[in-house]
């Protein structure tokens, strides 16, 4: 089947989505008319009444589905986005309109900024996408922060290319129809009765046939949109955009998890506008290799069975076959696309207000240094508490075995005592020197059920990292309390504490010695003594 014939077939099948409902309703109406006028008998009235009831219910389900067809692709409200008008952001709208014009498409009626590394055009479809409607564009502020202006032009041209008749006059209709069909089937499958599920299965089967038939058309449309983007924005800029978007997505996920959510356990947030806005600092602080490392080893999301996007490598290879134009692609204007916006700080703050839950309004705001310090102290307390509890229990058991009594300090269950009644760092080291680490403390450290039966070296090697972390947490707490540790937001690395030079050089070795099979606490005690002299 030729490409154009496939496009025509897809159009016919798309129209068949309406026709199928009309045919089913007409068949049921004819059957009910025959049943009432020709086949109805007094003896079988109860059976015929049951058949009429079933057909009426089926008709209601079909009408519900047809009504869903009419509503498919309807644009709803966008509560988690910031609307920008041409008056607010004229430079950005100028780029959007230029990209629409070059593809022969209408510019969007609405433009929204969202908190995602994404861009897209949505349309209020009519007749399952056969007729275009009101158009809306979504642009991610994090995407604008990571793209250059030429790369943004390539992204915009590609998005409008989805709706343009680039490879065939039916290309845009097919793309709208695919989105509408997928949405319609999802609505149909939401029915709660078995009749809805039965009819939903019928429409799902039809939808699969339509999607298979239109798959090649959609793929050609995607590739044609890439070609259009390359001709408009430049070959190299388009290739760069395809390569950088997955990297930006991984970097943004890392930023949200590592930086923006840093205060979540503390009930705190970064300063207003910096929950999303400081993604710019991370991008500015890291090289391309460092950013790419954030996505290295990550498995790309599994594409939908009927995803129209060919693999990125295939798309890039096709674009690179294009002849270079007379532009120095991507080298003329390396400005970030975010520079097209007026007052981006205000937009980041507005987006934050729209996307964060209402409970976030009651959370305290902390500067980044205060946030890093508070999180480091909280983490250190979390790392150290299991070790402190285990040592407290071991000391309690040791004191009980020695004289049959329990000192006032050990008079409660260790898990329930307050932090100020748990042993300090020196007491833990004393317990290690007494030989309690592998005889009593390790057995009282929490461990998963699967590791409960480990003995000997295997048990020690399993629990050693937890004891190491517990001691490290105690050290961090001691240095923070003494004012020897300073917070480091580390946009180019991992946020945490900067320790004195002696600790940075010698702490790991000292901790390793303290948790060895034969514990040696002398190196760690020497570092502690040096810190006390500095304080004095």
Short description:
The protein is mostly helical and 536 residues long. It is built from 19 helices and eight strands.
Model description:
This protein is mainly alpha-helical. Helices cover 61% and strands 5% of the residues. It has helices at residues 3-39, 45-71, 90-102, 141-146, 149-161, 171-189, 194-233, 235-260, 274-277, 279-285, 288-295, 312-320, 344-355, 368-403, 425-433, 436-441, 456-481, 501-514, 522-535, and strands at 82-83, 110-114, 119-123, 135-140, 268-269, 364-365, 486-488, 496-498. The strands form three sheets. The chain has a four-stranded mixed beta sheet with strand order 1-2-4-3. It has a two-stranded parallel ribbon with strand order 5-6. Helix 3 (90-102) crosses helix 5 (149-161), helix 7 (194-233) crosses helix 8 (235-260) and helix 14 (368-403) packs across helix 17. Residues 406-415 have low confidence and may be disordered.
The Cα radius of gyration reads: 33 Å
| Helix/strand/pairing category | mainly alpha
**Overall 3D form:** extended
Number of strands: 8
Query: Kindly state the mean pLDDT as a whole number?
Result: 82
Strand order, biggest sheet? 1-2-4-3
β-sheet strand percentage:
5-15%
H/E element sequence: HHEHEEEHHHHHEHHHHHEHHHHEEHH
The helix content is: 55-70%
Discrete helix count? 19
Task: State the separation between the terminal residues, measured CA to CA.
Answer: 87 Å
The quaternary organization reads as single chain
* Main beta sheet strand tally, sense and closure: 4 strands, mixed
Low-confidence stretches: 406-415
């Amino acid at each position: 089947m030729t490409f154009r014939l496939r496009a025509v077939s897809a159009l016919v099948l798309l129209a068949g989505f309406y026709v199928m409902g009309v045919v089913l309703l007409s068949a049921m109406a004819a059957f009910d008319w025959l049943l009432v006028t020709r086949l109805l008998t007094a003896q079988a009235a109860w059976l015929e009444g049951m058949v009429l009831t079933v057909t009426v219910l089926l008709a209601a389900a079909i009408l519900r589905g047809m009504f869903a067809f009419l509503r498919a692709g309807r644009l709803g409200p966008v509560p988690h986005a910031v609307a920008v008008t041409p008056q607010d952001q004229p430079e950005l709208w100028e780029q959007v309109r230029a990209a629409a014009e070059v593809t022969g498409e209408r510019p969007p009626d609405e433009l929204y900024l969202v908190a995602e590394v994404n861009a897209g055009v949505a349309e209020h479809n009519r007749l399952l996408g056969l007729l275009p409607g009101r158009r809306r564009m979504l642009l991610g502020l994090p995407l604008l922060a990571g793209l250059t202006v030429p790369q943004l032009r390539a992204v915009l041209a590609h998005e409008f290319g989805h709706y343009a008749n680039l490879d065939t006059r039916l290309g845009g209709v097919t793309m709208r129809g695919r989105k509408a069909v997928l949405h319609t089937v999802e609505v149909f499958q939401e029915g709660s009765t078995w009749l809805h599920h039965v009819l939903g299965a019928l429409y799902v089967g039809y939808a699969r046939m339509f999607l298979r038939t239109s798959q090649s058309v959609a793929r050609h449309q995607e590739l044609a949109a890439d070609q259009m983007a390359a001709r408009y924005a430049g070959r190299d800029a388009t290739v760069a955009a395809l390569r950088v978007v997955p990297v930006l997505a991984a970097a943004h996920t890392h930023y949200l998890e590592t930086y923006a959510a840093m205060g979540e356990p503390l009930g705190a947030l970064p300063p207003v506008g910096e929950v999303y806005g400081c993604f710019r600092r991370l991008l500015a602080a890291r090289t391309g290799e460092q950013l790419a490392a954030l996505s290295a080893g990550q498995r790309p999301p599994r594409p939908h069975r009927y995803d129209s996007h060919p693999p990125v490598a295939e798309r890039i290879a096709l674009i690179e076959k294009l002849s270079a134009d007379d532009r120095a692609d991507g080298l003329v204007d390396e400005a970030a696309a975010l520079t097209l916006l007026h007052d981006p700080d205000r937009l980041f703050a507005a987006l934050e207000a729209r996307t964060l839950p209402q409970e976030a309004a009651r959370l305290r705001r902390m500067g980044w240094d205060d946030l890093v310090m508070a999180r480091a102290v909280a983490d250190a307390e979390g790392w150290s508490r299991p070790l402190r509890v285990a040592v407290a229990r071991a000391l309690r058991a040791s004191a009980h075995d020695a004289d049959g009594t329990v000192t006032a300090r050990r008079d409660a269950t260790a898990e329930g005592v307050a932090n100020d009644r748990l042993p300090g760092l020196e007491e833990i080291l004393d317990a290690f020197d007494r030989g309690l680490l592998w005889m009593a403390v390790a057995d009282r450290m929490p461990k998963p059920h699967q590791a409960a039966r480990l003995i000997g070296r295997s048990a020690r090697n399993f629990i050693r990292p937890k004891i190491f972390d517990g001691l490290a947490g105690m050290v961090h707490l001691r240095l923070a309390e003494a004012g020897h540790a300073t917070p480091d937001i580390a946009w180019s690395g991992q946020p945490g504490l900067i320790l004195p030079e002696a600790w940075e050089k010698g702490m790991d070795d000292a901790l390793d010695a303290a948790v060895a099979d034969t514990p040696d606490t002398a190196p760690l005690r020497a570092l502690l003594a040096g810190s006390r002299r500095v304080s004095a």
